[in-house]
Amino acid sequence: MASPLYQSIEILSREKGIDPEIVVTAVEDAIALATRKFYKTTENMRGEFDRETGEIRAYVYKTVVGTAEEVEDADNQLTLEQARELAPEVEIGGELRFYKDTSPLGRIAAQMAKQVIFQKVREAERDTVFQEYGDKAGEILNATVKRQEPMDVIFDLGKAEARMPKREQSRLEQFAVGERVRVVLLRVDRAAKGPQVIVSRAAPALVQSLFQSEVPEIYDGTVQVKAIAREAGERTKIAVQSRDKDVDPVGACVGMKGMRVQSIIRELRGEKIDIIEYSDEITTFAEKALQPAKVSRVSITDLAEKQLEVIVDDTQLSLAIGKKGQNVRLAAKLLGWKIDIKSEEEKRQEVEQAMQAMSGGPSTPIEQVTELEHGIMEKLIAAGITTVESVADMTEEELGEVPGIGEKSVEKIATAVRNYFLQLSQASAQPAEQVEASNSDEESAMSKTPEEILAAEGAANGSIEEVDSVSTEQIAEAEDELSLSDANDAADAREAEIEMENDTLDQLVDDAQEFSREEVDNDGHNRD
Questions:
Q1: Which domains are assigned to the chain?
Q2: Beta-carbon contacts of residue 154 (< 8 Å; ≥ 6 apart)
Q3: How far is residue 125's CA from residue 284's CA, in Å, rounded to a whole number?
Q4: Cβ neighbours of residue 337 under 8 Å, at least 6 residues apart?
Q5: Mean predicted confidence (pLDDT) in 495-516
Q6: 168-212 pLDDT, tens per residue?
Q7: Could you read off the pLDDT of 437-491 as tens digits, one per residue?
Q8: pTM of the entire structure?
């Protein structure tokens, strides 16, 4: 029958999950060390534990060598002749035991033995934990909440305790002692106070394991989980792909009326989950990863650095970015690419600035704005604002920050700049109108008689007195011009006049006025 001491060792071994022989060896090593310290000897010493009686003994052992010349350590070796005097059957290489009395060891030696036993047990426990959990990193384990510390949660795994640090916890979760939960095994640390098994409830592997247990298509490999991006307690994006064209990967994960995904959401205490269909085309995958926002277009800006540029409508920008940038951050994690997201307006301004930079860009001095008061202009120049374009690009808030510029001055500046650009646009459109009007006048002049030309010119000038100022020489020239008998020559002359510059057209008008003056004078003489 085993002694009470050995029965206690067995109980301790079961609690720690280690082999009882490891504890027995620790006890024997402890008594040997304590005996050596007590007798202050350098002799080789071992301990011996009797499982039946519970007696612990310590002995010195010496190795047998052939002759005296072969003895190197007199304390731990003896010759064959000396050994056979004590034990006639001993051979070279054998050992002889010399037991030591352990009864006078005392309290100090016992305390030393206790420390050695504890150290050996801790080392054995650490080795056992490493053998059990060292190769299970990433696996899902069932654990029971043992206690809660200020920052950590301690779980009981059965053969060891596990610790879940604050950073590996979800902010939505609160645990009660004795509650059973599923955790992800991260790693096993060799700590000085014992083995530390680190588990997590924030790892993406937990979501993948939950989907695998809830979705049969994932379990049998029909649907594959290609990527997961998670911010524990907030949102998770998971990309899935089907190996069977007849199976919808997203629908399989959602389940009938959302039952499958709702079960996982309950397990995660209400964490939001976005299920996305995976695509090998990175631009298509990026559009889906940014859901629920609608993306206008996606382009690759740097293939080596894995950078994408995403353009969205102005109304979709905040939705694409998400709360505190969460949506675009998770999408970038899911893709493994850097995402630069811009609105349509931002992209347009960027293109305009690039075009201006290529062309040198407009630079109009602010003095060109004549409606701007001299005092306001001096304040703007003093602040380093010297061009009209720089003023136009500034907001009202930025103008208000200029020293000496108040609200009324901001309104005056805005009005003056607006009027300046309005006048500039009108001036740029006027030359085209003038050219069109000139062509129209030339065509009408060909089809009008001198009397019609005179009436139009007189209406433009506003009085008959200007017609009276036409000289007699001009009238004579007009008469000569109109008295041409050859109609063909008159037509050729008219075509030549149309091809002349604007001054030729004016001369034609003057000739018509002279002819009309003659008619007016004739009418006057007849009335007299």
A1: 4-128 (3.30.1480.10), 134-200 (2.40.50.140), 279-361 (3.30.300.20), 362-423 (1.10.150.20), 448-527 (no CATH)
A2: 145, 146, 147, 148, 161, 162, 163, 164
A3: 52
A4: 282, 286, 306, 307, 308
A5: 47
A6: 888 888 888 888 988 999 888 776 566 688 899 999 989 998 999
A7: 555 554 444 444 444 444 444 444 443 333 333 444 444 444 444 443 344 444 4
A8: 0.53
Distance separating alpha carbons of residues 75 and 93, to the nearest angstrom: 16
Query: Cα separation of 328 and 334, whole Å?
Result: 10
Only one residue has tokens 């631009």, namely 283
Alpha-carbon distance of 467 to 458, in angstroms, equals: 7
pLDDT value, residue 84: 79
In whole angstroms, what separates CA 422 from the centre of its chain? 43
* Dihedral sign (CA 110, 115, 120, 124): positive
Token pair belonging to 354? 């690039």
Pick 122 or 317 by higher pLDDT.
Answer: 317
DSSP helix/strand/coil, 155: strand
Q: Retrieve residue 483's tokens.
A: 């008295």
